[in-house]
Each structure stands twice: as C-alpha cells, then as structure tokens.
Specification:
Blueprint lengths: L7 H19 L7 H5 L19 H10 L3 E4 L2 E5 L16 E5 L3 E4 L5 H8 L18 H17 L7 E4 L3 H9 L10 H4 L31 E7 L7 E3 L10 E4 L15 E4 L8 E2 L3 E4 L22
Parallel strand pairs: 3-7, 6-10
Antiparallel strand pairs: 1-4, 2-3, 4-11, 5-11, 6-8, 8-9
C-alpha cells in the first residue's frame, strides 16, 4: 500500500513543519531519550510527503546551492523491516521481519553523492566510471564517513548547518524506511522504470536521477550503486524496536540497494549485504543523511593514515 500523493501546497506546508520540528529538537534534548521524543511524533508513517525534489525549505535550498546536494525531508514513522519468507529473492538475513519505529525526522539525499559533489570537497575522484553527474564509487565506508565529517565541518563553519545537526550516513533502518516510501512489496515501483541493474545498465553506472524516483522523491535507491549505511552488521531481533542502530559487535558495515551489475533479487528494498569498512568497489557509493545529533549517530572523526583517500591509488 502506498501513501497518497499530496498537492504541492500541502507538501510545502509539511516540509516547513518538518524543519520546525527538527529545529526544536536540536535545541532541546538532542533526541537522546527515545520515550520523550516518541511522544512528539505519530507512530504511523504520515500521509503527506514532499512532492518535489528536496522540498521547499530555506535549509534545503541553502544546502543545494552550497553543495549541490538535494535533501528530502523524511518524517518519523513505523514500518515493517525485512522481507517475508515467501518473497522472491528472500534470504535468511532479511528476517525475522521486525516492526521498526523511527521517532526522529531526518533529511536524506535525493540522490547518491555524485563525482562532482565528492571532488569539490575531497579533491580526488576514485571512480572507475567517470562523469560529474554519475555516482562516486570505489569509496569505502571510511571514505564516506570522512566525507560526512568534512561536510559537517565546512557547513557548520559557513553557518549553514542548524545547531545540533550533522551530516552522516543513514542507519540501515532509516535507509529501508525511506527506500520503501510506504510500500510493503519487493520494491517501491517498477524494476525497469526505477532501477539501473544488470539487465539494462550496459555494465556501467549512469548519471543520477535518470530513472524514476520513489514516492518520496528519492532516486536510485535500488540500483546504480550500492550504498553504505552507518550500522555494523547484525541480525534482526524480530518483534518491535525503536530507532535501531545495528550491532555493537563485529567490524563489517551494511550495504543497501542494488547496483549496475546486480540481479533483480539484489535490487529489492529488503536486500542487505555487508563488507569491511576499508574495501572499495566500483559498484559501491553512498548518500548522506542530515540528522539531529544523537549518541548513536555521531559521525566518527575523519579518517587518518593509510586508508585516507589521498593515499589511495586508483
């Protein structure tokens, strides 16, 4: 079941409300207490979503003008994470299905980070498939965290970042919630209309936002490049959870979404794999999230030493 498409006027109103709620949270408790925050939000996903790329708030316009990154406001809500046993392509790590409640609104990049956006901040383009509007790829989880940390520092210094907010990677739960966009099936829409994958990609990445977005205005969630999430790899607990952040153990991190060389089973909303934080592949990129700071979602400090990208030889 999908959420109904809103009128543009309602979408603008909703976007402004999302920003206002987020700003209140950022100057109060920092969203540390899940019970207190949960009382401020509905427990079900909202019925109104932004109808155009990046919403219509001052913040999203300022971010887009300064960085080229379009942000989509995502409202708090509840969804069923994972896939049922009968879903085609289901694998064991997608279960048991777990009821997840996200108590905090957040912003998510409408697209994965492009090579132009990456190079403007980091200076070195590691991508195999070159093109300013193509996804940056061959970036590790450490590289992505480094980018988020540098972006946070730069935007805070420029006065464009609301107090208490950081750029980071989305948690796995935030990613799947946004990917589903209110749907419950294998994907949020038609495979070929929305996804660059092995049967239509020509064995290469493609410029971002050239396929249809999902109902919440997010592009390439299920294809083009896989996307790092903040979490370490761990099993789903089943039952119901609030604001999960993955495992506290292990070293590998979650990758979500399909890729230009992924088969249809990989390009599902529930599909999940993982890898070590230092590995780099030409099918892996990331998108940024803008979130109120919490103890669980603070971006680590920028990477230093031999894994830092300026020491990387393509």
């Amino acid at each position: 079941m999908r959420y109904p498409s809103p009128a543009l006027a309602s979408a603008r109103s909703r976007t402004g409300s999302v920003l206002a709620i987020l700003l209140v949270l950022s100057v109060s408790t920092g969203c540390q207490n899940n019970r207190d925050v949960a009382a401020k939000f509905p427990t079900q996903g909202p019925s109104i979503r932004p109808a155009k790329l990046g919403g219509d708030s001052d913040l999203t316009r300022q971010v887009a003008a300064a960085t080229g990154i379009q942000l989509v406001p995502i409202s708090a809500g509840t969804f069923l994470m994972g896939s049922p046993l009968e879903e085609a392509g289901h694998v064991a790590n997608e279960g048991p299905q777990t009821k997840v409640t996200l108590t905090r609104d957040f912003f998510l990049g409408a697209t994965v980070v492009t090579q132009a956006q990456w190079t403007a901040l980091m200076g070195v383009n590691p991508s195999v498939f070159k093109g300013d509007d193509r996804p940056v790829e061959r970036v590790s989880w450490n590289d992505a965290i480094d980018f988020c940390g540098k972006l946070t520092e730069r935007e805070r210094a420029a006065g464009r970042l609301p107090a208490g907010f950081i750029y980071t990677l989305p948690t796995e739960a935030q990613w799947e919630y946004a990917c589903r966009a209110g749907t419950t099936g294998p994907r949020a829409g038609d495979l070929d209309a929305m996804v660059w994958y092995t049967r239509n990609s020509g064995n290469t990445t493609h410029p971002v936002a050239t396929k249809q977005p999902n109902a919440w205005g997010l592009y390439d969630m299920n294809g083009n490049v896989m996307q790092w999430c903040l979490d370490k790899t761990g099993p789903y607990p089943g039952g119901a959870v609030v604001d999960p952040v993955g495992s506290a153990f292990g070293t590998s991190h979650i990758l979500r979404g399909g890729s230009w060389n992924g088969d249809p089973a990989l390009c599902r909303s529930a599909s999940r794999v993982s890898n070590a934080p230092a590995v780099r592949y030409n099918r892996v990129g990331f998108r940024v999230a803008l979130c109120a700071v919490t103890a669980d979602q603070v971006a680590p400090p920028p990477v230093s030493g031999p894994d830092r990208l300026e020491h990387f030889s393509p």
